Each structure stands twice: as structure tokens, then as C-alpha cells.
Amino acid sequence: MQKKGKKVSFSSKRKEYGSGPGSNSELVTVANEPVEKNDSSDDNSDVGGFLGEGFKGKTGRGPHRNVTDTPKPSIFTPEPSIASLPIHLLPILYFSFGPADAKGDIYGRMKRTLIILIILQCFSFYGIALTVNMKRSRWKLKQKTKNVNSKKITESRKNTHISMDNGDILGILFAFFISILASVPIYIVLILFGAPISSYTSLTFLLALHISIIATFPLLCTYRVASSDFHYCWVNLLTFQVDKFYKNQIYMMAVGAMVGCWLGVIPIPLDWDRPWQAWPITLLVGTYVGATVGNLIGYFAGRFL
User: Fold this and answer.
1) Are the beta carbons of 132 and 164 closer than 8 angstroms?
2) Where, subcellularly, is it found (predicted)?
3) Could you tell me the pTM of the whole model?
4) Residue 265 belongs to some domain of the structure
5) What is the pLDDT of residue 184?
6) In the 3-class helix/strand/coil scheme, how is 68-114 assigned residue by residue?
7) Judgement on whether residues 41 and 189 belong to the same structural domain of the protein
8) What's the start-to-end Cα distance of the chain, in Å?
9) What is the number of domains present in the chain?
10) Which terminus of the chain has fewer Cβ atoms in its 10 Å neighbourhood, N or C?
């Protein structure tokens, strides 16, 4: 006669099996005794999920979720860095639209300022600093993921893995060209928000170029097109689904540029009759100041919060 499986009492065996409410301890038998079978499909799935028959939790056929399943990670956030501070923006703005040059050709000044901005932002220290900080931050994140329980890696060893290569230079150039193309949708957004359509077209497009170089280029250097998570990152960036966005120095720079440009509209309709109220000087000033303030907020929030 076949020996009938012994059913373990939930109350008496709770300590032995470490069970809690809702667990499968009622179906577990003592040593070397078979598991009690039941015709119910729910009981069979519970036994399979607990004992590993077919690993139903992994295949998704049972109600149990695999413990190794992790939620989709948030987008990469670079570490706050002094090298990523846009210290060149306010000097460019002052020497181009300061009191010494309050009057004059607005189009010529904006074009001259744009050339200086492109040189300093894209082809000088700032683009290289953004790229190096991005690589260093990603490397640290990768090491932290691999060595959760290991000792902390020394800074000297980390720095040996960080260097610029030809791919990084091409990435900066590609980010620059994408930023130029991104000025077209930014120009359309400016028109939709009330920018003049029939007049000041060239000035509005120059404003869009300034905004794109200031806001879009650093983001493209940080979240590169060649990275595997590019689409996922940019969907989250454009839809403002960024975890702890106030700690993201580069993202806050872009947000600050947009907010500053929007606030720059306020002085235009006032009847002060000042030369700096001409279109689009106040919006341009708001973009430069807002980007600097936003970057500083992201830097200090990432350091101290």
C-alpha cells in the first residue's frame, strides 16, 4: 500500500520552514516523505513554484515572480562635475550684449556670439569635459554594479580607464551636427509660442540655434546616439520622466535654458523704451542665464542632496 503523504500543519511548522502568511508551507512534508498532491491546479502551481518543478516562476506559467526579475532601470545620471559648469556662457553674453554694445546691429551681434559659442561649446574644452565626465560616470556605475560587495576601487585605478579616443571626437562632431538640425523643431516651437512669423525670421532662427547649442549639445554628449539605451533615454528626457532630475546637472542646464527663454518674454511688452527690449535680446539673455543657473542647481543638488 502506498504511503500517504503527511501534511504539515501551518501553525506547528512555521518556525521550522520560516514561513509567513500566504506561503506554501502547508504543502511541504517532512524529510524523505512525498509531497501531498491535490487535484487543484492552483495547488500544483504552488508546489511547482516552491520546489522548482519546471521553474514556473521563471517561465511565467505560474503565479510566482522570479526573484531575479528587476524593474527597468532609470536613465543614466552623470556625476556632478566642476568641469561641466558652463563658465563661458555669461562672459560671452556680457561681451556681446553688455553696456558697451547696447546698441547696434542685433543680427550681427547674435551671429558673432553664435560663432564664439560654437567654438567654446563644441570644439573646445567644454565638449571634451562633458565626454570625459560621461565616460567616467558610466565606468563607475558599471564597476559599482559588478562589485556590490567588494572593496572600493581607488581613484588612480579608475582614472587609468578614462581617456579620449577617435570615437569620442567623432561623437562630439556628430552631436554638433545633430544640434544644428535640432534648431528646426526648436524654431517651430518658438513660432507656436508666439514668435513673429512674417518678421524677424532670421533673428528667431538664430535664437533657435543658440538654444540648441546651449541645451541640446550637452545632452547629446552625455546621452550619445551610439549608446545602446539612446532611444530609451531620449524618450524619458523629452517627456520629463527623469528620476531626481534636479540632481542631473546636464538635464537641469537644458531645462534652465528653456525656462529662462520663456521668462525672457516678460520685459518685451513693457513701455520702458530701452534698446535691450528689442526682439529677441531678452529671450537670448534668459537662455544664457537660465542655462547657467540650472546647471548650478544640478551641480549643488547632486553634491549635497
Assistant:
1) yes
2) Endoplasmic reticulum membrane
3) 0.69
4) yes
5) 96
6) CCCCCCCCCCCCCCHHHCCCCHHHHHHHHHCHHHCCCCHHHHHHHHH
7) no
8) 70
9) 2
10) N
